[in-house]
Every structure is written in structure tokens, then in C-alpha cells.
Amino acid sequence: MLSKFVSFQSSAENRDKILKMLQNWELLRSYMLLGIDNKKSEQNFEIYQQIYVFRRLFRLGKSLQTILNILQKQQMQNLKKHFHQIPYAVNEMSTYSVYVFYFFFHLLENIMVIHQMGFFEKKFNHQLLKILSHSFWTLGLLTQLVFYLNRLRSNFRRESEMKQQIQNGMTNQEFISQIRALTKERYQFGFLILRIIGDLACAMQKAQIPEKLLNTRFNRGLVALGGLMSSAIQIYLQATKEGKKNVCEV
Hints:
mainly alpha
């Protein structure tokens, strides 16, 4: 058990997800103590904010990773391949859009944290940058949601086609094996969709979207539960991948 945990937390991305869970746990505790012990609630909220700043420092330069993702994807796939197929085109456009939105999200976050460290003499409107960065995060999450919903639709379509193929010579063993694979894939897509929904609560809150559309704000409890759900799902999915690896990432 200990060796698995060490292997899991050896990745910087995994450590960030653990910090994300702790961050949202402090936010939830702050919400639960409101009206009961306001001083303790404010202390928990300050811890939440400190972890948030630390995570931004921890992810310094993360915007460069999105550029690397685009370059790697261009090397692995030919954009013209199957581009006449609508599902393929939607997936491709969604993937690249997510990278672009996340690039600007992380870039603005990096600018804010570098400015807070005193590297820029020019003053920035941090509130405006925060709204812009989380608006890009919201767009990225919504685009991801479209991507996974489209993949989920394709999964059900493949299962329907497979049920027709069993009449054309497919053995029962092959049919059961492929159905299990499709079912496992659906579970993963379901987890990923729930993760996105959890992150949307935080992203939309900090982008002030509820205030502009509904003239209200999400309470801390809702945002915290969304963040906890998202981080728990991310940790679970990543831990299952780590369990299949022979070499741990450094």
C-alpha cells in the first residue's frame, strides 16, 4: 500500500490533485462552521486561499504543457484523416479548443502569481484577470463536456452496431468481451463527466457567471463539494492508471 502511494504521489500532477482535495476540504469546513464558529470558519477559509496560491505557484509554467500537448497530438494524428465524419470532426475541434482555452487559463494564472511575487512593476487588475482566466477555464470545461458526451454517444452507437454483428458470425465470447470493454469505457466517461460538472461550480463562481446570469452566487458548500468530487475522481482515475504501470513517473 505504501509503495503504491509513493508511486502515485511521485508525479507532480498527482500531488496537485491531492492539494486540490485538501483545498476544497478546508473550504467545506469553512462553510460548515459559518454561524457556529465564524472565527474558525474564517481561519479555514484563509487556509483554503493559501493552498490556492500555493497550487498556482506549483503549476507555474503549466501553460507550456498545453503547447506540448498540441505538438504531440499533431505528430500522432493526421487532421485530414476521417475529417468528413462529423463525430471525428467534433472530437478534433473539441480537443484543440480545450488546449487553447486551458493555455490562456494557465497563462493568466501564471501572470497573476508572478506579479504577486514582485517580478512586474506594472500594476495589474487581479480581479479582472481572475475573471478572464476562469472564463477560459469554464469554456475549456464546457468544451470537454461536449467531447465526452460525443464519445459517450459514439460508445452507444458502437454497441448497437455490435449487437447487429452477432448475427453475422461474431461468437458469443467475442461479443461479451467487446461489450465489457464498451461498458468499462462508459463508466470512465461517466466519471469524467462528473469531474467536469464538479469543476464547473468553481470555475463559474470565480468567473462571476452566476452573478451575471442569475444575480446570485453559489455558496461555499456547493463549490467545495464540486471541487472535492472532481479531485476525488481525478485521484481515483489516476491511481488506477498508476497501478498498471511498472515504472513510476518522476
